[in-house]
Please model this.
Amino acid sequence: MSNSNAVTKVDDFDIDQMDVELNDSDIEVSDKEDNSSDTNAALREEFDASNKSLDATQLYLGEIGFSPLLTAEEEVLYARRALRGDEAARKRMIESNLRLVVKISRRYSNRGLALLDLIEEGNLGLIRAVEKFDPERGFRFSTYATWWIRQTIERALMNQTRTIRLPIHVVKELNIYLRTARELSQKLDHEPTAEEIASQLDIPVEDVSKMLRLNERISSVDTPIGGDGEKALLDIIPDANNSDPEVSTQDEDMRNSLIFWLEELNPKQKEVLARRFGLLGYEPSTLEEVGKEIGLTRERVRQIQVEGLRRLREILVKQGLNMENLFDVDMD
Model:
């Protein structure tokens, strides 16, 4: 007998059987006891709902475990048929990749949505991937599908829990720096540097740089580069804490694809994006830091970044990937 079944039976006895015995014995229950009974009923209802959710998850995981994976050759065969409208092939493509959805969904646990809800959202992305996948482009389907699965999950989480929470003292300190920066920009008629902000506040430049870097990076994982806003850079950068070989392989495939697409940009655009977002061996840097490293102004770096992102978006669209949220920065 499983632990969950055992607990359920004990719970049924404690509540239901007790109610029967009290009624049969004609025992008068006080208002206080009534309240306790109501509480027990509420707790039982909550427990049962939790149990049902757990059971449903286990049942689902058990069912999809019987769906065989496709070989690379089968993948191309079924994908071609699905593109021609073969419903059986489409269904086979979906069913054979349901475990991929579960693997990805588990990485988003404890962020505001139950696992089954995450899986449901991920399955929508999987279906979309099957509809859009073109095997002639040379991608493995798992790599392509991962983009869409993450997209739908991230969007659901964004709608559920959008706010990034920071310690209150960090928020207060950041607000001081940002307010000072706004005031200086009005006085100086240009966006102030970290040195100018530090001088105004009489604090170390490094403290200002650290907070401004934090602010840029917080806002650099979700902001759309235009259009629908369907993808974030966070989705394609491998999780260093993830130990799942299959997911790590898919992340590496996507990173390699991104590096390949960067080669389509001109050298300056490629270097700016690589330095800004931590690609090609660079550490992520602020616009100001990149400017100092390559001898350009912050504003010029921003302009090159915008141009590069627009070009990158065009490339991704041609690949059938509507990655309007690939990098989180303003397009203007």
